[in-house]
Amino acid sequence: MRLIIYKEAIADIYRLREFLADRETRTAQRVVAALYDAIRSLEVFPGRGRPSGVPGVRELVVPFGRSAYLVRYAHLFRS
Fold first, then answer.
1. Contact 39, 50 (CB under 8 A)
2. Phi and psi torsions of 77, nearest 5°
3. To pair with 23 at 20 to 30 A between CA atoms, which of 14, 46, 67, 72?
4. DSSP-derived secondary structure letter, 57
5. What digits encode the pLDDT tens for the residues 8-63?
6. Higher pLDDT residue, 75 or 70?
């Protein structure tokens, strides 16, 4: 599977990093790394997320500390 990350998603991650960096730079770096690792794992396991309730869209829960982040994605099949 080929993974495409839209520029809007990358912008969301940058905004999150900036928001978290105001509190703790190291934590911000760890959150971004966890998100990118989870997103990259979708290349190998595209079905690992759960259905989102929106047709064609899945959600991958990325735990971090006592919280979690949600990655929404679509798995597009090619013939």
1. no
2. -85, 140
3. 72
4. -
5. 989 999 999 999 998 899 999 999 999 999 999 998 998 899 999 999 889 999 99
6. 70
Two structure tokens written together for 26? 């190291």
Q: pTM of this prediction?
A: 0.83
Contacts 24+ apart (CB under 8 A), 67-70: 69/16, 69/31, 69/34, 69/35
Name the H helices within 22-73: 25-41
Q: Which two tokens stand for residue 79?
A: 């013939």
Quickly count: other Cβ atoms within 10 Å of residue 31's Cβ: 22
Whole-angstrom Cα distance, residue 3 to residue 42? 7
Q: Show me where the domains of the chain are located.
A: 7-73
Phi/psi at 37 (5° precision): -60, -45
